[in-house]
Amino acid sequence: MVQQVTQGIKISVHTHFEGTFYKDYKIHYAFGYKITIENQSKKEVQLLARHWNIFDALNTPEIITGEGVVGKTPVLKPGESHTYSSGCLLSAPFGAMNGHYKMLDFTTNRYFNVEIPTFKLSAPFALN
């Protein structure tokens, strides 16, 4: 697990390897991750968007942006948290991800970014 706190918002990431499969005559490595976003600040915030940097050992980095997380834009009052699960496919058994969430502080009506710490994606059979 990796964790990071930005402006009172704590991000915790758990990862796991889901398996391999063939698609279009090419092997893919599937990884899952569970992220908990915990509001440790004294302000009410809303997650509006995400920005991901995906690093695959065999491909060029990929950037993904979009609204919310898995179709939601959660509002977090002080002390509340939101957990969701998602995943990604890599061409290699190794990779990593990081990024940030765009948040809105309802107290000041200002936007701010919360960093998502770099987390590794690695298939257990490829480790030694």
Inertia-based shape? elongated
What is the assigned CATH homologous superfamily? ApaG domain
Runs in which pLDDT lies below 50 for 5 or more consecutive residues are none
Number of helices: 0
Describe the structure.
This protein has 128 residues and is an all-beta fold. The chain has one domain (2-122): Immunoglobulin-like. It is 0% helix and 70% strand. It is built from no helices and 9 strands. The chain has strands at 2-6, 9-23, 26-39, 45-56, 62-67, 75-76, 81-90, 94-105, 110-122. The strands form 2 sheets. Strands 4, 5, 6, 8 and 9 form a 5-stranded antiparallel β-sheet that branches. The protein has a 4-stranded antiparallel β-sheet with strand order 1-2-3-7, with no helix packed on it. β8 (94-105) and β9 form a beta hairpin. The protein is elongated and about 50 Å long. It starts with a strand and ends in a 6-residue tail after the last strand. The relative contact order is 0.28. The mean pLDDT is 96. Residues 3-128 form the ApaG domain. One of its GO terms (biological process) is error-free translesion synthesis.
Give a topology summary.
Blueprint: E1 2-6, E2 9-23, E3 26-39, E4 45-56, E5 62-67, E6 75-76, E7 81-90, E8 94-105, E9 110-122
What labels would you give this structure?
about 130 residues, four-stranded antiparallel sheet, about 70% strand, elongated, Co2+/Mg2+ efflux protein ApaG, ApaG_domain, ApaG_sf
Question: Nutshell version of this structure?
Answer:
This protein is mainly β and 128 residues long. The protein has strands spanning 2-6, 9-23, 26-39, 45-56, 62-67, 75-76, 81-90, 94-105, 110-122.
